[in-house]
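Sorry to interrupt, but I need a hand with the structure work. Leave the record below and I will have a look:
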Amino acid sequence: MRIDILTALPRLLDSYFSESILERAQKKGLVEVVVHDLRDFSTDKHKRLDDYAFGGGAGMVMTIEPIHRCIEKLKGERAYDEVIYMSPDGDLLDQPMANRMSSLKNIILLCGHYKGVDERVRQHLITREVSIGNYVLSGGELPAAVLSDSLIRLLPGVLNDETSALSDSFQDGLVAPPVYTRPAEYNGWGIPEVLMSGHEAKIHAWRHEQSVLRTQERRPDLLESFGDG
């Protein structure tokens, strides 16, 4: 998979993709993440990317030309499955969406800033809009990193234990059950005996039961959407 991220603030993304699982995935050649500075595609002598909105109003708007120039350059080099704008009013990212999108080969992620982008970008250059939640951030860089992370960790070979992603929260419409590690007793706090039993079927049943209970307590909306499994 290749992910091209278009941004006005490329340094915001440097550290996120240069550590831990995401760094290893790139070193293994399982994913290529390329961050593009939109200022490199601006013809303005000051490399500005924003301007006042027609009709007035508060806030600046990202101009169409640098975005269009960057997207066209990338499309001239390879075919893209999706050109995605990270937007608070886009489709809400969830695990089923991440599962589907992890099979894509090449995607572009556009990070908005200021008051947003010229609407013609959304009308003519974007194939999909994605949101990570019902709130507004200062820019699309964090949402782009979140979406990228949710896809990359699903790629074969990225996680040391490939079954790990299959047991994550939301994969089966439930949140994940409690997990414990050594020591088995600490400060008088123990762990459920079933986890020490070595009985795989009982452990699996306990984990499913705990997932259902925890989902009922914390995210009952998931049960409404998916059922209790």
